[in-house]
Design a protein that fits this description.
single chain; 117 residues; mainly beta; seven-stranded mixed beta sheet; four-stranded antiparallel beta sheet; 55% strand
């Protein structure tokens, strides 16, 4: 059974940076598209960034140029570097793994990011 564990959330002032990390186990990491999603109170969970097994990336328009997603297939981790943070980036951030060839999808438990103005 796959498991994803996020870390790195916290409280930061606007303009600051945070780096989130997601450690995966129990899945074929290199076959998974890995993604970061976020959910603010009262809102739906939205895609922030994702990276394919081949390293292709895409980002939500709201974070382009500020956030960078990366993966390390040797360590089974995916990171999200967040710079120039804004109060509207405040949310619970979730890691997701998708392996279409095996029809598998896993979510992490989430990590809180709070950006103060």
């Amino acid at each position: 059974q796959g498991q994803l564990v996020e870390s790195g959330g916290g409280l930061v002032q606007a303009g600051g940076s945070l780096r989130l990390s997601c450690a995966a186990s129990g899945l074929v990491f290199s076959s998974n598209t890995m993604g970061w999603y976020r959910q603010a109170p009262g809102k739906q969970r939205d895609l922030v960034a994702r990276i394919t097994p081949g390293g292709s990336t895409n980002y939500a328009d709201s974070v382009k140029g500020r956030f960078t997603i990366s993966r390390d297939n040797a360590k089974n981790t995916v990171d999200l570097q967040m710079n120039s943070l804004k109060p509207e980036d405040t949310a619970v951030y979730y890691c997701r793994a998708v392996d279409p060839s095996r029809a598998l999808l896993f979510w992490g438990q989430g990590t809180q990011v709070t950006v103060s103005s």
